[in-house]
Amino acid sequence: MDTVKLLDFSALILLFSTGLLVVSRRLELAIGLLAFQSLVLAFISVLVAATTGIEHIYLASILTVLVKVVGATAVLIYVLRKVKMRRETGLMSRGLSLALVVGLILVSYNTIHPIKLANTISSPNSLPVAMSMVLIGLFIMVSRKKALMAVVGLITIENGLFLIALSTTYGMPLLVEFGIFFDVAVGVMLMGFFAFHINTVFETINTDELNRLKG
Amino acid sequence: MPAFLYLTLLPCLPLAFVALGLSRLHLRARQSTVIILAGTIGPVVATVMALVSAFNVFTAGPVVAGEGIFYLDALSALMLAVIALVSLLAVTYSIPYLNREMAHGVITISKLGWYYFWLNLLIPAMYATVIVNSLGITWVLVEATTLVSAPLVGFYGRKESLEATWKYIIIAMVGISFALLGILLTYVASLNNLPESGASLDWTFLLKNAASLDPALMKLAFIFILVGYGTKTGLAPMHTWLPDAHSQSPSPISALLSGALLNCALYGILRFNSLTKSAVGPEFSSGLLIIFGLLSIAFVIPFMIKQIDLKRLLAYSSVEHMGIIVLAVGIGGELGYFAAALHIFNHAIAKAFMFCVAGEVTERYHTRDIRQIRGIVHSAPLLGTFLFAGTLAVTGTPPFNVFVSEFLVITGAFASHNYWAAGLALALLGVIFASMLYHCVAMAFGRANELILPSDGASTVPVHPAMSLPDSSGASGFNLAAPHMPVQVASVSALSGGSSNEELALSGPDASGTWLDRAAFRRARTGLLTLDKPSLAARQTRPPKRRLAVEHIKTKSKSEQTNNRVALLILVLPVLTLLVLGLWVPSFVQDWANQVGAVLR
């Protein structure tokens, strides 16, 4: 299998795992899927680095593994254990969620496909998949109630943006890339802390309990 | 000169850890001064250095330093000056504010350490945002300011503040992801048509080569940037986190967020606006800015009219003023840019001042509920004057500085033939003026003769323990030591109205610094209700205003009085600035604003 096909295949795996994320009701499964998603992303960036020979992409993939696969998962699992929360009920049924997500994927394929970019790695799927990930991440954030799922959605968005950067410009400049990973790491820790804190004060991590401030 | 730049960022970071470390040393409450000192030095030194840097840029022109990492022009200098002055006000006002919170038992030494830790990270992050050259690094730093300010927003750890913090983190981070997408698109545009170099995302490089950037990509990028940074700037309709975050944080932090942090995100929009205009022509971004500007001014009006929370009122006013700045930039023209530059500065000082005043009002009335804050001018004349002057300033009334810049914005809009925008803005500003003044007049001059209970326990009702004496049924079981709900004298004797109750209130124990926990508070509330019925008849004879003022002072302990005075003393300088800049805009300020205007073009 040549590299382009492998890239394309990985992108589809990425899309599939992100789709699964939407229908997963068990939080542990969602966190596992997120880790898997980040791992596939790291694999894609290694592939891109190997094909193009740009060294700093290797660094980005190492950071992806460290921050998103290991770090974020550890924080999320830790908070999950602390708050003793297993299952999640979303705002809508799985069937409806899935239908909406398919719609989002179609939208991204339709909008991205006509755009021709000079620098794109020649995998036709990676850019639409990346855009879908951003949209699905947003969808997860609005359609789920548990605070932890907001973190999962946010990391999905970040992953989508990372893939967009990877497939259009071979990643951002090194210093910027580094800064983004730093922000993600600190952000996940902070959100984990606050999710935990919300659980102690509100005795739940359902974000629909956060409804006191109005007007 | 470059040495100055690095030094600007240096003092805060280590002192953040010093303050945190000191708070772990099991100091006694009296020794909190050490922590406060450690936490204050850094920002004060940074203020001096930032002001010197800004002055240098204004007098000697743009500076590139640190092998192209740092770039300062007039816009950065303006932002530096704004952050410097607002952070100076915030850290100095923090001293009396936190002292009283410590005395009331609201915060512990450990909390104090964390406060100064995050504050000392937030301030350098804001400085850095406006002096780096790379648009990507600016993004990283704007995101960083969200992260380090979130713990300050949730500082009190109450339900409401946690809710505000969560909304703030989530909405700001999602919003700013869009800005990253915009920056990515700019990077794509840069790499597509320009030679690749380490400087591909640098502002200086991009602006020089803006004409060769792909217009379609830049348009798309600008939309994402406007939505993304607009969320952090608090432009409607992405502003929903702002009133929550700004009202729930401690008042010095509210001042910092409104005065300085909003401007950091605005800085990103302004930079991209210049870039987009050079790449695709002026109409596209100007139109968008005018729409978002007007929308932000219009959107807040119903919320301001119906507002019952003093700090939320001010927060919505911030949304409005960000709208005015964006409108001014959208209108453009020499006058528009000049007005925008002035307005950034004027709003920052006015709003930071107002949040500190709101903090003082809250400190005395123990509530942010506008309906319960009455007659400040009688009970605390200087503070009442500040509140009134500040409201006039914020609403753009002469002779204050905000009037000058708002007037110029409207004039600029007429001058550039944007009659619709000008007329609409004028009408909307009129309504905002009326609604803010309505609230302010009631708070400053009103008479407290009505007891309004909040529908939930969210805001506090002033209760005086002495009031429980004649009615032992409901209100006797106060847990006076448990910290949670504040109790206050001045408003209650006014509330109960009857002369007998007033005597009781006067002869009761010193109520400043006494607190009820939530359960006791509920009981007190019912107790207060039963108590209040007989006093309804006695309410015909209203308490004399002067009496309130005297009593207000009597009930304060010595240290609290000192802290109150210090706080008012700190507020004198900004209110004078508001007044002086309103009466007379010196020629050097005009020159500097013109320089900023040239960058915005």
What does this structure look like?
- The complex is a heterodimer of chains A (215) and B (601).
- Chain A is mainly α and 215 residues long.
- Chain A has one domain (3-209).
- Helix content of chain A is 76%, strand content 0%.
- Chain A has helices at 3-23, 27-52, 56-83, 94-112, 126-143, 147-169, 174-202.
- In chain A, helix 1 (3-23) packs parallel to helix 5, helix 2 packs parallel to helix 6 (147-169) and helix 3 (56-83) packs parallel to helix 7.
- The mean pLDDT of chain A is 87.
- By secondary structure, chain B is mainly alpha-helical.
- Chain B has a domain at 448-541.
- Helices cover 74% and strands 2% of the residues of chain B.
- Chain B is built from 25 helices and 4 strands.
- Chain B has helices at residues 2-9, 12-23, 32-60, 74-103, 109-131, 135-153, 159-193, 203-208, 215-233, 241-248, 251-280, 282-299, 301-305, 310-331, 333-365, 376-379, 381-394, 401-415, 419-445, 490-496, 499-507, 518-538, 545-554, 558-583, 587-600; strands at residues 63-65, 70-72, 485-486, 515-516.
- In chain B, the strands form 2 sheets. A two-stranded antiparallel ribbon of chain B has the order 1-2. In chain B, strands 3-4 form a two-stranded antiparallel sheet.
- In chain B, helix 4 (74-103) packs parallel to helix 15, helix 5 (109-131) packs antiparallel against helix 6 (135-153) and helix 11 (251-280) packs antiparallel against helix 12 (282-299).
- The radius of gyration of chain B is 25 Å and the shape is globular.
- Chain B starts with a helix and ends with a helix.
- Chains A and B meet through helix 5, helix 6 and helix 7 of A and helix 6, helix 7 and helix 10 of B.
